[in-house]
Amino acid sequence: MTAPSTTPMDRTVNRETPWPALDRARTAAADLFVRNNGLWPDAASQPERLRLEIDGLVGRPCSFTLDELRSRFEMRRVTAVLECAGNGRGALEPPTEGLQWSNGAVGCAEYGGVRLGELLAAAEVLPEARHLGHHSPDRTPTGEVALSRGIPIWKAMAPETLVAYEMNGEPLSFEHGGPLRIVAPGFPGAAWQKWLTRIEVREREHDGAKMTGLDYRLPETPLGPADPIDPATFRVIEDMPVKSIITHPAGGSVVPLGESIEVRGWAWSGAVPVASVEVLLDDDGSVEASMEATEGPWAWRRFRAPWTPGRAGSHVIAARASDVDGRRQPLDQAWNPRGYCNNGCHRVDVSVE
Ligand SMILES: Nc1nc2c(c(=O)[nH]1)N[C@H]1C(S)=C(S)[C@@H](COP(=O)(O)O)O[C@H]1N2
Ligand SMILES: [Mo]
């Protein structure tokens, strides 16, 4: 097991899911965006050497090899959207610190692995347990822990939450955290710890790298760019907001005047299911998209809407999704100090000829 040869070992690698791949229901491992807060981890996470340790507030600390995880626990599958909390940050005005992602820090795949809740039951989690801390061997160029985040115990025990060793029916690739990663559907990508080697059961929220301060947190009440910042009023992002992308036509496309074309894309959300998508067709008004069934509650949902452009020239089309609780994407940005969870409507420029 080595890092992919195209990705240097001495740099942090971050790349988006490429545009044509975003139009597919399932994102292939080779296409799915990559977000590394540090360098590739070393041999500590090689499949043959790996032991997953579970300790902290447990009655029976345990340690599992990959083979033991496969043979001792039932394999569960979940199809889920993985989205970086910073996806869409690049559109924010004024810009915030952090990677200036466009719309491609997202994808949807099927993961296979063991239920985290079943592992915790095997370790006999104590009643005072409230949170987990996740540990991995990847380090920053200066040798610090790259990322060590955790999730609340209720999410760890939820049936959709896995310690995954497969993606799209194949062994989880090194790039995406293989041999083992957390899959926490509906939570931001940062909660999906890659190269997992240790789970620490805790009474309090974890305080590992990128878990404290303003990291992956939103203010309790919205803050403007000029407002003073008090970290005590920020909360860890758990449930991701309702969002959508138009995957066809692609930005910059030329479409024929007076002919019907299909506008399509994906809508997703966290725990609250997507209800509908309105497609805004510039000066041709707006239309309620038809919605297809999903591959389960955590997958993204296909929307389609017909459009017959009535005028030549440039147009901007947009999609606006709502969840079943009536929360709707804002037309414009959702600014916050670190630029997380920007679910402002995705706009696509097309030229009608
Ligand atoms: N060990 C480790 N896990 C990690 C990260 C990391 O840097 N190190 N990045 C996190 C972030 S911020 C995201 S968005 C997802 C990205 O997963 P991917 O690279 O498989 O797309 O992994 C998460 N898990
Ligand atoms: Mo992320």
Textual characterization of the structure:
- This protein is mainly beta and 353 residues long.
- It has 4 helices and 22 strands.
- Strands 5, 6, 8, 9 and 10 form a 5-stranded antiparallel β-sheet that branches. Strands 15-22-21-17-18 form a 5-stranded mixed β-sheet, with no helix packed on it. Strands 4-3-11-7 form a 4-stranded mixed β-sheet.
- The chain is globular and about 70 Å long.
- Residues 1-6 have low confidence and may be disordered.
- Bound molecules: ligand MTE and molybdenum atom (MO).
- Residues 32-38, 82, 84, 136, 138, 146-147, 176-177, 189-190, 192-195 line the site of ligand MTE.
Number of strands: 22
Span of the ends, CA to CA: 51 Å
Judged by helices, strands and strand pairing, the structural class is mainly beta
Helical content band: under 10%
Described by the principal axes of the CA atoms, the overall outline is globular
Rg, rounded, reads 21 Å
Q: Please tally the helical runs, counting DSSP H or I stretches of 4 or more residues.
A: 4
β-strand amount: 25-35%
What average pLDDT do the residues reach?
95
What hetero molecules are bound to the protein chains?
ligand MTE, molybdenum atom
Largest beta sheet, briefly? 5 strands, antiparallel
**SSE string:** EHEEEHEEHEHEEEEEEEEEEEEEEE
